Amino acid sequence: MPLTVSNLSMHLDYPPMEWMLQVADEVDDAVSAVRLFALGWGEEIGLVLAGGAAACAVCVAMLQGIA
Question: What pTM value is reported for the model?
């Protein structure tokens, strides 16, 4: 029992299918780019909010004489 294909002419060669797969791949790439862009903005906003909260906590501590 051979482990490789002996007849190389028996492969799928269907141009409309290739075109459809290419379009699906491009749509998937676009969705992934938008998702990564949105996650990046979410992380930036989270970092700004966390930094602001930390700065407020330090200011409150300084005003109360703790720090």
Answer: 0.44
Structural domain tally of the chain?
1
Q: What is the DSSP string of the chain?
A: --SS-S-TT-S---HHHHHHHHHHHHHHHHHHHHHHHHHHHHHHHHHHHHHHHHHHHHHHHHHTT--
State which residues form the domain around 42: 31-67
15-62 per-position pLDDT tens digit: 777 788 888 888 898 888 888 887 777 777 877 888 888 888 888 888
On whether residue 19 sits in a domain, the answer given is no
